[in-house]
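User: Earlier you gave me the apo prediction for this protein. Now I'd like the version with nicotinamide-adenine-dinucleotide bound, so I can compare the two side by side. Same sequence as before, with the ligand SMILES added.
Assistant: Got it. Here's the input I'm using:
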Amino acid sequence: MNLDGKVAIVTGGAQGMGRAIAWRLAQEGADVVVADLRQEGAQQVVEEIVGAGGRGLAVAVDVRRQEQVQAMVDAATGRFGGLDVLVNNAGVGKIIPFLETTEQDWDFMFDVNCKGLLWCSQAASRVMIAQGRGGRIINLASQAGRRGEALVLAYCASKAAVISMTQSMALALAEHQITVNAIAPGIVDTPFWVEVDKQFARLLNVPEGEPKRRFTATIPLGRIEQPEDVAGVAAFLASADAGYITQQCLNVDGGSWPS
Ligand SMILES: NC(=O)c1ccc[n+]([C@@H]2O[C@H](COP(=O)([O-])OP(=O)(O)OC[C@H]3O[C@@H](n4cnc5c(N)ncnc54)[C@H](O)[C@@H]3O)[C@@H](O)[C@H]2O)c1
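And here is the structure of the complex with nicotinamide-adenine-dinucleotide:
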């Protein structure tokens, strides 16, 4: 998976899966822009990457804001001279029953998970098209996008939209040799699931930690997913070996889907 000479942006790179993906791409030789709402978190990841001999740049971005997204892409090309890989990892989720879902909840999840993904993909692909050397866009979907869940309507819908957007973008960008794929993780041990566990616990009236234990017990491979499980697949999709794969959503969920 040699990514020497490649330039990558990872959104939501300050923690969780984004952090692991940024690390892995840097280990494979890429120059990595770690972009996040939380500038200090992104800066810390970059310092770790640079400390290990890699090259990185931290950028503060709210992916919902087109002008900030454009500034992020400009910073990447300004510092590293081009752009080859975009990982649309920034995402948010809340556990809210169908009847209690508000306009604010709906907008929050769709604004970050879908609208932000669109702005980042547009800005990155304009650069990739102009460069004329192809490119890779990798979107973080979810097993939640594969099916409905009574307590998770808006998040499931937003991740189903990510899978659909992946397909449309792949077709729109194929003539430029830009591949677009998604990864659908299962239950990943990140700060995200700490919050999700709390929200499920409140709704199911069980102690904190119990929802995570229950859901993990259903995973065929018998353990909770680690961010590194996803990072390796992202690195593969960014690599030359994945050059003929596009419009796909890879389930990386320990065998949970379909079931
Ligand atoms: N953890 C899971 O079980 C799981 C499962 C399937 C899919 N996912 C998806 O994978 C991705 C990463 O998940 P995670 O568990 O690492 O999440 P996380 O909450 O641990 O980290 C997400 C990062 O995104 C950043 N972010 C949030 N909103 C942003 C915005 N508007 N602009 C820029 N950055 C923003 C946060 O600051 C944070 O650093 C998300 O898209 C999530 O929906 C997570």
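For your comparison, keep in mind: The longest helix spans residues 103-131.
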